[in-house]
Amino acid sequence: MYSKKIIKKIVFSFLLLGILVIPAISFASGHGEEASAGHGDIALVFGAMAIILILSKLGSLITRFGQPAVLGEILVGVVLGNLALLGFSFFRELEHNAIIAFLAEFGVVLLLFQIGLESNVKEIRSVGVKSLVVAMIGVIAPFVLGTYLIGPYIFPGLEQIAYLFIGAALTATSVGITGRVFKDFNKLHIKEAKVVLGAAVIDDVMGLLILAVITAIATVGSISPAAIAIITLKAFGFLFGGIVIGSYIAKNLGKVLLKIHTGIGMKLSLALSIGLFFSYIASLFGLAPIIGAFVAGLLLDNVHFNGFKNYRLVRDIKNWMESRDRNGVNKALSQILEKHSRKHVEDLIENVAFVFVPIFFVYTGLQVKLETFFNPKVLLIALLVTVIAVIGKVISSVFLPKNYNKWIVGFAMVPRGEVGLIFGNIGKSLGVISDEVFSVIIVMVILTTLIAPPVLSGLLNKYKDEN
Q1: What is residue 38's predicted lDDT score, i.e. its pLDDT?
Q2: Are the C-beta atoms of 221 and 151 separated by less than 8 Å?
């Protein structure tokens, strides 16, 4: 527990922040139309970014209670978005701001790129079958439960296509949220995390395939088996071909850029450009850009950056060591330097991610509308749907070997996050699902997104003690 002194400091920090921020919010609310339109006073967007970044860092106070920083960032977004209930509508209007939406998307692309960099193709391949099984159960079970249980029995009288969309919305897994929790706890290296990351990628591909097929049915009334086969081949072709071809491109592009300049700026530019390029290519294949970013991170082996400069401190220590005899101290230093040289690209990307990744999670929170909870009927149905949605993902780990923590894997697959929101929005835009069904999906997405991080953090804390 925390001392009174620490609690007083936390309370004082929030009071001081309120004194500084509330006037800014009040002013911004009066000029919201210009900013929300995506043009006009760009300075208002800068002001919004400043507030979002500061508050996202204060949201990290939640880590003092053993919870991941990502949960604090989402809650900050929830609070800011729902200040509209008190008359401050500026941040809710930012939900529709093209610039903020772009920055948020860039943030999640960076996050998945980071996770890919810190992962390893060989390690993920070693748990490939396990990931495939987890993904298949994690997609099929929620889809069946949503289409044939939730749909007909909770929403009777709707068309079959509406039930299919409900099932599709339940298949999603937000790899960004689960990956961030593992990263916050420095647990990306454990076998459960590797299974989850591999499964989440396959899960997203399968979910997007289902969405593509259902959307086609809703649009044209039917879809041929040949069209389904083409969509599937394109998706898996990108995953496997991207790693092989992309690795070759990255290696040779690095050699070309080395001849131009060997500086850290060139190194960072090479890494970022490959991550963004693969995000673009993934979208051409009908996949989410975050899948492309993850694949790009996986294929960027350290060998592609040989020859580029390291941090000045690393170079100075290496020069000092070369001027002295090799002994135990030098050998130990050499091992440490080698480790940090390999992680240099990750460190460079991390510095950029510190700015943009929190924007994504705050932006996710901005989309949470608390007034949705004010309708008792919608809330009750949503709670029931959420329970089924959680069960549908937790059981995905049932066939894992005994030496795996099945609860960690199961709950890591629970949050629907931005992927679930996308599925719901598409169904609504096509006129397939009603406002009531859409509200239920939104509440389910909110609850699974908020429930998973604290549960997963508790499991990861125990994992440290058990292994």
Answers
A1: 44
A2: no
Cα 363 from chain centroid (whole Å): 12
Rounded percentage of the chain residues whose pLDDT exceeds 70 = 70
Higher pLDDT: 332 or 462? It is: 462
* Number of residues that this document lists for the chain: 467
Angle formed by the axes of helices 376-394 and 435-466, to 10°? 40
Sequence spans of domains, the chain: 1-95, 97-466
Q: Which of 36-50, 99-113, 337-351 has the lowest mean pLDDT?
A: 337-351
State the pTM of this model: 0.66
Task: Give the model confidence (pLDDT) of 231-262 as tens digits.
Answer: 777 777 777 777 777 666 666 665 655 555 55
CA-CA distance, 218 to 326, in Å (whole number)?
70
What CATH number does domain 97-466 carry, 1.20.1530.20, 1.20.1260.10, 1.10.150.80, 1.10.287.1770?
Answer: 1.20.1530.20
Cβ-proximal residues to 463 (8 Å cutoff; 6+ apart), any chain: 187, 190, 192, 405, 408
